[in-house]
Write a structure and sequence with these properties.
This is Condensin complex subunit 1 C-terminal domain-containing protein. This protein is an all-alpha fold. Helix content is 64%, strand content 0%.
Length: 108
């Protein structure tokens, strides 16, 4: 259900970016959701919106940056990474790579 609401919110944001940019903080918080499918979907949408200048990167990208780290259990041991967790890590890394690439092109 969250994925569908996320997709609807992104569609509206893409259509009316100036009106909804102040309400876009929910999108920057979604990469830390408990459901790995929601994290994957939100990272894909963030990458698209940030690289197509619909959103501007802000300090709120810290939640996406945390997705690049391996999650630790409460006893301090690292969890065995599932394929979904690995995909989240790869997508978060790709998000920052794309932002970096886009900024490098702007500076040229």
């Amino acid at each position: 259900m969250k994925e569908y609401l996320l997709a609807a919110g992104v569609d509206v944001m893409y259509r009316f970016p100036a009106m909804l940019e102040s309400h876009s903080l929910f999108l920057f918080e979604m990469p830390m959701d408990a459901d790995p499918n929601v994290r994957i979907t939100s990272l894909l949408y963030l990458t698209y919106l940030l690289t197509h200048d619909v959103l501007k990167p802000r300090g709120t990208l810290s939640d996406a940056a945390l997705c690049m780290l391996n999650r630790k259990r409460s006893d301090g041991k690292e969890e065995d990474c599932s394929s979904d967790e690995r995909e989240v890590t790869v997508l978060a890394t790709e998000l920052f790579r794309e932002i970096s690439r886009k900024e490098a092109v702007k500076q040229e």
